[in-house]
Description:
Elements: H1 2-20, H2 23-61, H3 63-78, H4 86-100, H5 104-120, H6 130-140, H7 148-156, H8 166-187
Helix pairs in contact: 2-7, 3-4, 4-5, 5-6, 6-8
Amino acid sequence: MINKIWFSLIVLGILCTFLTGTTQITIDAITVSAKSTIELIIALTGFLCFWNGMLNIAEKSGLTKSIAKLLKPILMFLFKKEGREEKALGAIVMNLTSNMFGISNAATPFGIKAMEEMQKHNPIKDRATNDMVLFLVMNAACIQIIPTTIISIRSAASSTNPTFIILPAILSTSIAALVGIGSCKILERYF
Length: 191
């Protein structure tokens, strides 16, 4: 359905350019937009490679394991059943650690693995457990220590201070995570 809507909007827009005589302006705008999109993608690819390399260095240096050791007692307190399973907990820790460094594309496989592991211990297969919902909320509102994607976008957009976002990101994601976790803990008593 959405594809039909988009197709209709594009065709309608093209027809309007013919009727109003602004075809050349539209073609110029498409060309400029395509060029700037390609430039942004190339810049972001470079930044993504850099931050993935940094995460790889952090992993090999033991930094991610140190963070995992700090997170494990907190997660053992928060998760009550399926999230405490060793494989699920390992995937949860790696997912949250990757998200903390702002590399959500590296976190996604760990998030999927964590959900798969928790689903194995789910007694009602067509329904998410409280631990699964809690993990989903924690994943969505994960505390960002270094918001690499946003820094990369700001840098690619020629921001004068692309790292200015770090403190606001830490504060906003911390508040979001605390509110999300609190809401889950309150609502799991009733559902």
